[in-house]
């Protein structure tokens, strides 16, 4: 009888802690005012005091003047005494006046109430022209006579032409 009671308490506590998800479907368009091809990666994050939560997969693409993105993600909670998800998009892009330099831009997209089972569907138009800080890169001289450089990127990479 005692084993059954312990099993019953364990099973009941497991059921109580079941949490449902809050889902996000975020999409939109990135605008680049430079008349050049540019590349981008967009990642959805939930801001936290200690460590931000990456939500969903990375959306990447190429554009000329503009480019579209779409991300789907989900989360269960945001810590004690916090009733909102504080969401932002991390955008890594090459829309600047330099050739193949990447910039990282964090675009805050809002506070979303934590409602279990809720699905937020939002679209954003974001101008990334020269937006954000330049990312570190290592440049190697390929041909000293012509002073051409080969860029090697650190961190998350996407191919550049």
From TrEMBL:
InterPro entries: Transthyretin-like (IPR001534), Transthyretin-like_sf (IPR038479). Keywords: Secreted, Signal. Coiled coil: none annotated. GO terms for cellular component: cell surface; extracellular region. Its main location: secreted. Residues 1-20 form the signal peptide. It is found in: Secreted. Belongs to the nematode transthyretin-like family. This is Uncharacterized protein. The gene is Cnig_chr_X.g23091.
């Amino acid at each position: 009888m005692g084993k059954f009671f312990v099993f019953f308490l364990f099973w009941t506590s497991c059921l109580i802690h079941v949490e449902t998800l809050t889902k996000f479907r975020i999409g939109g368009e990135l605008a680049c005012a430079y008349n050049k091809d540019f590349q981008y990666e967009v990642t959805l994050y939930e801001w936290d005091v200690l460590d931000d939560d990456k939500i969903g997969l990375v959306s990447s693409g190429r554009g000329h003047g503009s480019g579209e993105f779409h991300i789907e993600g989900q989360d269960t909670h945001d810590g004690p005494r916090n009733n909102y998800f504080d969401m932002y998009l991390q955008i890594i892009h090459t829309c600047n006046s330099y050739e193949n330099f990447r910039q990282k831009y964090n675009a805050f997209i809002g506070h979303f109430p934590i409602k279990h089972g809720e699905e937020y569907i939002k679209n954003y138009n974001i101008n990334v022209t020269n937006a954000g800080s330049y990312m570190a890169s290592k440049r190697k001289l390929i041909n000293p006579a012509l002073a051409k450089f080969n860029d090697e990127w650190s961190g998350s990479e996407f191919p550049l032409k």
